[in-house]
Amino acid sequence: MPDWFWQAVESPAEEHTVEVEECDVVFQTWGEAGKPPMLLIHGMNAHRRWWDFIAPQLTDEYRLAAMDLTGMGDSDYRYAYDAETYGMEIMAVCDAAGFGDDVLVVGHSFGGMMAAKAASLHPGRFGALILVDSGIRNPDEPVPDGPMMGGGRAKAYPDRETAEARFRLFPPQPCANEYILNYIAKQSLMRLDGGTWAWKFDEELPLTLKGGERQPEDYMGLTLPVGIIYGALSTSFTQSTLDYTLELIPGDVLVQAIEDAQHHVFLDQPLEFVAALRAMAAKLRA
User: Fold this and answer.
1) Structure confidence by residue, pLDDT tens digits, 228-262
2) pTM for the whole structure
3) How far apart are CA 99 and CA 64, in angstroms?
């Protein structure tokens, strides 16, 4: 593992909890209070610890928070999930972290979609939005072939080592930085009664989620500065997706492609992603 990675993941962070609609939402913070605020939101079936090696690299300029959306990570599970409640969770974390209406929200994939919905539903609450490999597919663009994410019976593994070896990215893609995958796998497991291990997400979430589809209105309703960072090799965020998303969002949108990166941009090219995020955030805040 490179030194920068160790320094980042060993940086001190504070864990917090805020209650939203009778469920605890867990988040963690880095950096000094009073610096410009930035909130990081993970993708589907991921969690706040995916940002452990990204957030500490930005604490020279920002006060950062990363959250677990309910049904994922260490936050509580719900009987059913909906986009409006996720929007409330995003706002509640910002409030609990002491972030004002200048907060810059960074959302990867599903997290970007929920952030866009929240910003559209609650104009004025957030200062700027950066979508990371997250947009809306052109309705004329064919959906790529591949396995669908669905629900089902939770998988339990006999020991931690077996579980970690089964860690896979979704959508499927290779990642050359095996040390990052190994780290995330370790943070993604919980021990069940009886000593078996399972992933930290609700298998029923995709089956019970309401309002989880990307809608043109979510992007047409954005009134804040917006930027997009995407993987140049991503099959989830194509040129057609980019063009259609840009058509919908009012005003000028900053766009940055990360070369040699796929959908999981900051796993593929973490240092390049941090540099792009830092530069784009400065322009959006200006």
Assistant:
1) 999 999 999 999 999 999 999 999 999 999 999 99
2) 0.96
3) 9
